[in-house]
Write a structure and sequence with these properties.
five-stranded parallel sheet, globular, about 350 residues, Rossmann fold, about 40% helix, 2 domains, alpha/beta, four-stranded parallel sheet, binds N-carbamoyl-L-aspartate, 13 helices
């Protein structure tokens, strides 16, 4: 298998992170661990500025001029609404042309073409690949493929952003969640530092939980609680990461014992698309539903998050509570993704300069 990259993949993460960098800057976005505090802060700052610039027609014209010479391929083989659409909109704000393959059955994949050959093709036509794939390690492999110096094609190297890698990782969701935390707790002197976050639901297979947990370790005095059924507790690799980062975490199946303490209740749906048998249907998930009664017990200044889509685990009546932040998460996702794409193509400074010139008086 010439494109398996087995050897690199088996290395510990810290030894392979440099493969995702170019000129000492993030280039491919595969793992949440790639983002340090400085980069997170910068991306949030750019996102804040972007949304202000975009409020005027002139501002939008300026933003569209930034990457009008670049194009993006959205390759999404797993279902998606928000991640896909927010990436489309963010690339449109930056003036990029885009195309997609979402249904492999109407592309040459249905003639037996491999995913790898498909991606090689995309990289010949586009300047950026954003992808969501059911195979956990696929986006990582594509990053190595793009870097592969054995390939003698022109223009082969383009950056790759993962928009969800099987049950493993969802780094840009972690960024938008972090951005939401920063905006929601702007009134706290130290914003995210010192928060107690409770992840509730399928914390084993919820990739948003996994990626955000990793990003949270970049902040100080974070406390994390995982509230889940016995069968869906966090996996060993995340536990090891938390231990290594010396994060204070706690596991329970009872929301009630914590609800008064939590600053954030992050609800997730059961990820039954990853079932191998009937494990989800045999489970009573109702204990992990957030009700209006639960919300009444929460702190006044706490917030409720959910990556969406939701099912019964989050009562729609909660939408009217000021602590509900999930619709804001959606919007924040568009701006932080625009910020990330601008950062990767090195136009982030242009955005900040424009803002200083036109807005800061
Ligand atoms: C999540 C995902 O795809 O992992 N959705 C999203 O990207 N907003 C969460 C989910 O599907 O439950």
């Amino acid at each position: 298998m010439p494109y398996s990259y087995k050897q690199i993949i088996s290395l510990p993460l810290r030894e392979k992170l440099f493969h995702f960098m170019k000129n000492e800057k993030i280039y491919h976005v595969i793992f949440a661990e790639q983002f340090n505090r400085d980069v997170i802060d910068r991306l949030c700052r750019i996102a804040d500025v972007l949304r202000k610039i975009a409020q005027t027609r002139e501002g939008q014209d300026f933003l569209r001029s930034l990457l009008a010479h670049k194009s993006v391929m959205l390759y999404f083989t797993q279902p998606s609404t928000r991640t896909y659409l927010s990436f489309v909109r963010s690339c449109q704000y930056l003036g990029m042309n885009y195309a997609n393959v979402r249904d492999p059955s109407i592309s040459s994949f249905s003639k037996g073409e491999s995913d790898i050959d498909g991606v090689l093709t995309f990289s010949n036509y586009f300047d950026l690949i954003i992808m969501r794939h059911h195979e956990g390690g696929f986006a990582e492999r594509v990053a190595y493929l793009m870097n592969d110096s054995r390939l003698k094609k022109a223009n082969i190297q383009v950056p790759v952003i993962s928009g969800g890698a099987g049950p493993d990782e969802h780094p840009t969701q972690a960024l938008l969640d972090m951005y939401t935390l920063c905006r929601s707790f702007i009134w706290r002197p130290k914003k995210v530092d010192g928060l107690h976050i409770g992840f509730m639901g399928d914390v084993a297979r919820g990739r948003t939980v996994r990626s955000l947990s990793k990003l949270l370790t970049r902040f100080s005095n974070i406390k994390i609680s995982y509230i889940s059924p016995q069968e869906l507790k966090i996996k060993e690799d995340l536990r090891k990461w938390l231990d290594r980062q010396r994060v204070d975490y706690y596991e329970t199946d009872n929301l009630n014992e914590l609800i008064k303490e939590l600053d954030v209740v992050y609800v997730t749906r059961i990820q039954d698309e990853y079932d191998t048998g009937n494990e989800s249907s045999d489970l009573d998930y109702s204990k992990f539903h957030l009700s209006i009664d639960d919300v009444q017990k929460m702190k006044e200044e706490a917030i409720i998050m959910h990556p969406l889509p939701r099912r019964q685990e989050l009562d729609p009546n909660i939408d009217f509570d000021k602590r509900a932040k999930y619709w804001e998460q959606e919007v924040n996702g568009m701006w932080i993704r625009a910020s990330l794409v601008a950062f990767i193509f090195n136009v982030d400074s242009n955005i900040l300069d424009y803002y200083t010139l036109h807005h800061s008086h």
